[in-house]
Specification:
Blueprint (H helix, E strand, L loop, with lengths): L21 H14 L4 E6 L4 H4 L4 E3 L1 H10 L4 E5 L2 H10 L5 E3 L8 H4 L3 H13 L5 E6 L4 H9 L3 E3 L4 H11 L2 E5 L2 H10 L7 E4 L10 H6 L2 E4 L11 H10 L4 E4 L5 H6 L2 E2 L2 H10 L5 E5 L2 H10 L4 E4 L15 H12 L6 E2 L3 H17 L1
Parallel strand pairs: 1-2, 1-3, 3-4, 5-6, 5-7, 7-9, 8-9, 10-11, 10-12, 12-13
Antiparallel strand pairs: 4-14
């Protein structure tokens, strides 16, 4: 799904301010949520803003929420996240359950950096220049088509929580690792497993042969796709040094989608759930600088008022595509369900679903 995030008219609210005030929108959501409580499950990703999260039945990361959807017999799942998350939920839920993304333009810049045609070209290029066994691993933050590609090529999906275990399996199972779409999670995880930076190369789809020579491909242990999270790329080594200087007692904890320089100079790194767990288990008075999306950081401040929690960056590191899911879009989803004409239903084709599930099931077996 190729989305143009720079067209302002793509994000006009489905329910205008002339029709309903912000407060009336929230009141109607509350009313419809109660009325439809036996039919509709609302899932909210950690990076959603509080005015959406307040209506979520469950809050979590993308895979955790997809698993919740799988176990709950609802007719409708409203997924307050981004497109690839809704696709995963659709693949894991029964056919009689419809997964709705309140705004179909809520995509993921990282996922959009790796299209299926580009990845297939890269696979052919790498395979042509090496007879070694290559294991493809995709981060769960990708389209269903890429999950299917990995499934039919005997690879696996990973999350930021289980990346170390999945990548170790890939390194044990083959001669080379092809990891996409996030170069940083791949590099950071492989470095933790003892792979030197010299053994990792970047495949850039914008360049001929990915910008790589045949010799580079042959010698490399790990081939990383040139992709990244625009939010986590915003955290820099300078931010780490500034916190060290002004507040040496502060624990710096970051997401592994941050750059290698940031991760290697921080105190701790791990998935969203890891960050939440570390902070929740710390004693009162603990101080943290957190390198992840600002909505989560602000929520952690509210959850743990006896601890000092800061964003590692002085700037607002906001996931703007996630932010497309706003209360007016959520209300429109509920209204359409009540009318019996659900809108923005996400549906993955049978073949893509079958092949993707091979990769998902491989991940679940390994983790």
């Amino acid at each position: 799904m190729n989305l143009n995030f720079f067209e302002p008219d793509l994000h006009l609210p489905p329910i205008s301010e002339q029709e309903l005030s912000d407060n009336d929108v929230l009141l109607e959501i509350t009313h419809l949520k109660k009325e439809l409580q036996n039919e509709v499950l609302i899932l909210g990703h950690h990076y959603q803003s509080d005015d959406v999260i307040q209506f979520a039945d469950y809050v979590g990361d993308s895979l955790a929420l997809a698993k919740v959807a799988q176990k709950k017999p609802y007719s409708f799942i409203i997924f307050c996240g981004v497109h690839f998350m809704a696709e995963t939920a659709d693949m894991l839920t029964p056919k009689n359950c419809q997964v709705i993304l309140p705004d179909p333009n809520a995509g993921c810049s990282m996922a959009d950096m790796a299209g299926i045609s580009e990845v297939e070209i890269a696979w052919k290029t790498i395979s042509k220049n090496s007879s070694q066994k290559i294991i493809p691993i995709t981060y769960i933050n990708c389209t269903a088509e890429l999950k299917a590609f990995v499934g039919r090529n005997a690879g696996s999906i990973c999350t930021s929580s289980n990346a170390k275990k999945i990548i170790q399996w890939a390194l044990d199972s083959g001669d080379k690792l092809f990891f996409f779409p996030d170069q940083h999670l791949g590099r950071n995880t492989c470095a933790q497993l003892g792979i030197s930076l010299d053994e990792m190369i970047i495949y850039n789809p914008r360049q001929t042969n990915g910008g790589l020579s045949a010799e580079q491909i042959l010698k490399a242990k790990v081939i990383l796709w040139y992709g990244y999270c625009s939010v986590h790329k915003g955290f820099t080594l300078e931010h780490v040094h500034n916190f060290r200087k002004k507040s040496p007692q502060t624990t710096i904890i970051v997401h592994p989608e941050c750059s290698y320089e940031v991760v290697s100079n921080s105190d701790l790194s791990g998935s969203t759930n890891f960050i939440i767990e570390v902070i929740s288990q710390s004693p009162d008075g603990s101080e943290f600088a957190v390198g992840t999306e600002i909505n989560l950081v602000q929520r952690l401040c509210k959850m743990f008022p006896t601890k000092k929690i800061h964003s590692l960056s002085p700037y607002q590191c906001l996931c703007t595509t996630m932010y497309r899911i706003r209360p007016r879009w959520l209300l429109q989803s509920l209204r359409s369900i009540k009318k019996g004409r659900p809108e923005n239903v996400v549906s993955v084709s049978h073949q893509i679903q079958e092949e993707s599930l091979l990769a998902l099931e491989q991940m679940l077996r390994l983790s």
